[in-house]
Amino acid sequence: MIKAAVIGATGYSGATLISILANHKDVEIVGLTSKSYVGKKFSDIYKNFKGIVELELEEQNLPEISKKTDVIFVCLPHGIASNEVTQEVLNNSKVIDLGADFRLKDKNCYEAWYKVEHKGEDVLAGAVYGLPEWNEEKIKTAKLIANPGCYATASILTVAPLLKEGLVNSNDIVIDAKSGVSGAGRSLDLSVHFCECNETIKPYKIATHRHTPEIEQVLSDISGVNVLLNFQPHLVPMNRGILACAYLKPTKDVSLDELKEVYKKYYQNKAFIRVLEGDEAPETKWTKGSNYCDINVFKDRRTGRILAFGALDNLVKGAAGQAVQNMNIMFNLDETSGLKNNTVFP
User: Which residue has the higher pLDDT, 325 or 346?
Assistant: First the structure.
């Protein structure tokens, strides 16, 4: 059995992760931490776990926790993991960080976008970006995984095949994305109070969202060319889900059938990518609660632009599910283990 601990267990990503791990036949949860609820049982915070996960929440002490675990999932706000995940911890246990601290290769770039000092430069170089569909071989031997951001996952998976084939202009990309309110986390914030976010949709962090350099970095790595794009998120009044809408300029005349074949080429054997047929548009309701990302591509005959769309659950494929997918690969398990659940509808 893989002995696992979750650091920051009472956030939405942490709770989703625990739900998956509790039903994973190869995993035993041996530790849960919380800053606010030390000494309380996890099932007292999330009452749906009564009789399922009755562990007591403990203090956050990664060096000690690493001595009793095979893998530690870190579900903390940015700026904490870079200080907590040390070489000492990695000598004892593998780490999958669901936060942002190890996603960007350049420490200076991270500090410029996140406005906080990165204190883990000694382990940063060894971090592997955990996007299984594009980085599986490196994930297999990694000790430290940087789990991708939710917006970044949807955006990269949606656009990468076209960039990899050189079919779209790498400097003329617009990604317009929408997310449910759970993407803002569980902490209290006026902007996500019911009366503030219900019955409205709004753009936020205009031209400054921190997933922008992450998306550019990974798409540049995949395509081998420098990628510059506009990324704009929006908050919509639903609990879960992300829809990424990419507007792309082709580098040459290419038919819709050829575009669809490109996606099949890269994703037909990927367990959690569903390339939709015909003119079916991805919808968040069909990925809710699952580790799937639904993608389809279209061509605007009038303008010549390519339109690509991707939908996923921000808490599963955009966070906890992808983290478990990474764990499965790291421990040489079937990557779908614990993740073969159906979508939740309605």
Answer: 325
